[in-house]
Amino acid sequence: MPETGFPVEDKALFVRRLNDALVECGAERYDYLLVTPLEYVREDDREYVACGHRRACVSMDSLPAMMSDIYRQLSL
């Protein structure tokens, strides 16, 4: 990928931290994420957040947009 000169958001780190926050703050409601954590996946130009067999498309998303898409498409 060519260098643009702009800082790039670390989507993989964001997804790991979101997963950790849901587990830590979720009063055991999201403990299943310990076994099947959210995972950022990049395949060519496509970006997904996966949780088990479910996927949320997050291509071209900002971090706040990722939260919305994860919620809507994965039904956490």
Summarize this structure briefly.
By secondary structure, this protein is an alpha+beta fold.
User: What's the number of helices?
Assistant: 3
Q: How much helical structure, as a percent, in the residues?
A: 40-55%
- Along the chain, the helix and strand elements come as HHEEEH
Largest sheet: 3 strands, antiparallel
**Which spans have pLDDT < 50 for at least 5 consecutive residues?**
none
What structural category characterises the helix and strand content? alpha+beta
Query: Count of DSSP E strands?
Result: 3
How is this structure best described in words?
The chain is of the alpha+beta class. Helices cover 41% and strands 20% of the residues. The protein contains three helices and three strands, in the order H-H-E-E-E-H. It has helices at 11-25, 32-35, 63-74, and strands spanning 39-43, 46-51, 54-57. The chain has a three-stranded antiparallel β-sheet. Strand 2 (46-51) and strand 3 form a beta hairpin. The mean pLDDT is 94.
List the helices and strands and how they pair.
Elements: H1 11-25, H2 32-35, E1 39-43, E2 46-51, E3 54-57, H3 63-74
Antiparallel strand pairs: 1-2, 2-3
